[in-house]
Specification:
This protein has 108 residues and is mainly alpha-helical. The chain has three helices and no strands. The N and C termini lie far apart (104 Å).
Length: 108
Amino acid sequence: MTRLNLVLLLAVLASALFLVHTQYQSRRLFTELDRATAEARRLETEHQRLQVEKRAQATPLRVEKLARAQLQMRTATPAITQYVSDPAGVTATASSSQAAAPAAGTQP
């Protein structure tokens, strides 16, 4: 009888220790989950802030202002536009397209 009581006492103690350990793990995991949720909220807020900042940086007026100030660029006008023509390239392109046209017509 004493042996049975001793075995049962050890079983109860082991069960109690396991229960304490399980509760500790549960609390630890819950705090870790809470921290991760808070971090996710913080990152989402920062992402939204960065998206707004990105949209503000990419406005056409700001881009044009930076192009004028830092790159010394100016808008193209007909007065400063130079057109280049290549007469040899135009005839070469025309003759190659004429040569390809009859070949295309002969195929079934």
